[in-house]
Amino acid sequence: MERTKAPAIFLVPENSSFELNFQSHYFENESAVFVPADQFILTSTDTKCFQVNPKSPKNYRYLFSRVLSVGHVEADEKIKVTQSQEILDYSNKKWKSLNPFNTNEEELEMLFDTNEWLDKNVEAALDIKNKILSYSEIQQLSKEKLNLTLFQWKNHKLINQARQTLFESGGSIKETSYALGFKDTAYFCRFFRNNTTLSPREFIEQITDKPREKKILNDFKSLLKQYVDKEHQVVFYANQLNLTSKSLSRLVKSATGKGAKKHIETALISKSKSLLKEGHAVGSVAFGLGFEEISHFSNFFKHHTHQTPSEVVKSTIE
After folding, report:
1. Which of 16, 22, 33 is nearest to 254 (CA)?
2. Bridge-partner residues for 81, per DSSP?
3. What CA–CA distance (Å, rounded) separates 296 from 285?
4. What is the 3-state secondary structure (H, E, C) of the chain?
5. Phi-psi domain of 220 (left: phi exceeds 0; alpha: psi -120 through 50; beta: other)
6. For residue 305, what are the CA distances in angstroms to 266, 299, 301, 310?
7. How far is 168 from 24, CA to CA, in rounded Å?
8. Is the pTM of this model over 0.85?
9. What crossing angle do the helices spanning 260-277 and 210-227 adopt, rounded to 10°?
10. Are the beta carbons of 150 and 132 closer than 8 angstroms?
């Protein structure tokens, strides 16, 4: 885990995780990921980095797909081989066209300005209502577009800062609580657990236990390849790894950003598509993958792909 000293764009390989501010983000497709300066990152060795020119326009902040998390756009041939500024320009345009918040330009500016202000001012004792200008307007905008109150938004920022401070202080809970404006260490511990499900001590132990996490993830993926056409339940894979279902899901989600159940579903869909495109009949694929009824398989497939198995077969023939 290390800080970026300048804004950077990373080209992340497909089916890999990218850790920003101690939170994992999983990418099924190759992606261009923008990381602001002074953020904690952990990437794989084959992740390529393009430094952003500090003199470039500040509008690269629009790369964020959500205000509260790492921003990314799917990479394609237009941006795989371009320089950082070209990536910024292309990604900026693509992000705006998606408009994930369904906002007008003025509202979008307000969200980003609020985000930047919180980054600079967040602390436990921060009185948002009396500090943020146009509080009522921004509060309403945050609820409508982000499904968050400003208080929840502040706490999200505070937890991210708590993680960073714990890491930098070597795990000193008392030092971290005081640095973030908490007057009582016990209250800080309760706040941290309520927002992360971990105590500060458990968090420190988790980020220093990456080798074990990586082994479990690799073993889980190997089991998926071997058994996914027969076993669809998390408990089976957890038993194989001598873990509880809850522990396996937590470890897998921490490493990839997706729970164990989601990985099972993704593997089933991937194998289904391959078999259908090879010309296998829908019924054959359904029963071969352990579904008791063809209708169950069709409903499952459509729910995750927004296509029926028959539509995939038809498009392959055409």
Report:
1. 22
2. none
3. 12
4. CEECCCCEEEEECCCEEEEECCEEEEECCCEEEEECCCCEEECCCCCEEEECCCCCCHHHHHHCCCCCCCEEEECCHHHHCCCHHHHHHHHHHHHHHHCCCCCCHHHHHHHHHHHHHHHHHCCCCCCHHHHCCCHHHHHHHHHHHHCCCHHHHHHHHHHHHHHHHHHHCCCCHHHHHHHCCCCCHHHHHHHHHHHHCCCHHHHHHHHCCHHHHHHHHHHHHHHHHHHCCCCCCHHHHHHHCCCCHHHHHHHHHHHHCCCHHHHHHHHHHHHHHHHHHCCCCHHHHHHHCCCCCHHHHHHHHHHHHCCCHHHHHHHHHC
5. alpha
6. 10, 10, 6, 12
7. 19
8. no
9. 40
10. yes
How far apart CA 205 and CA 209 sit, in angstroms, is 6
Per-residue pLDDT of the chain (318 residues; tens, 9 = 90+): 667 767 677 766 777 777 777 777 776 666 667 676 677 777 665 666 655 554 443 433 333 333 444 455 555 544 444 555 666 666 666 666 767 678 888 887 888 788 888 888 888 888 888 888 889 999 999 999 888 899 998 998 899 889 888 887 777 899 899 999 998 999 999 999 999 888 998 888 777 656 667 788 888 989 999 999 889 999 999 999 888 888 888 888 877 778 899 999 999 998 998 898 888 899 999 999 989 899 999 999 998 888 898 888 877 665
- Using alpha carbons, select from 128, 127, 126 the residue that is nearest to residue 139: 128
